[in-house]
Specification:
This protein is mainly alpha-helical. The protein is built from 6 helices and no strands.
Length: 110
């Protein structure tokens, strides 16, 4: 299994399409930015919090990944977007070769 990084996830075309698509859907409903900028900001904040509490570098990276992916479920619906996003993340991260135990951590964080 591969130790995926946030940069790997950012380069995934499905992740990009789901974040952009979800942002477009929310924009039509009158919500503010939930696109790539928002995903990057949440990702950085999540990583910084774990860094300040002295979590391992790997746990910080998983937090960053979860933060980046946290709104991809908006591509389907605003309602239950966390549950949908966790399911989408499982498929994406597993297909990218992430270890199931790490996928579970990211899914739970989402």
């Amino acid at each position: 299994m591969k130790l995926l990084t946030l940069e790997d996830v950012k380069r995934n075309p499905a992740v990009h399409a789901y974040i952009v698509g979800g942002n477009d859907h929310l924009g039509a409903l009158g919500y503010t930015d939930h696109g790539l900028r928002h995903a990057g900001l949440v990702s950085s904040i999540a990583k910084n919090i774990l860094e300040r509490f002295h979590f391992s570098e790997r746990e910080q990276e998983l937090a960053a990944i979860a933060g980046y992916l946290h709104d991809i479920g908006n591509v389907v619906s605003r309602y239950y977007h966390a549950q949908v996003g966790a399911s989408l993340s499982e498929r994406i991260l597993s297909s990218m070769g992430m270890e199931p135990a790490e996928v579970a951590i990211v899914m739970g964080a989402i």
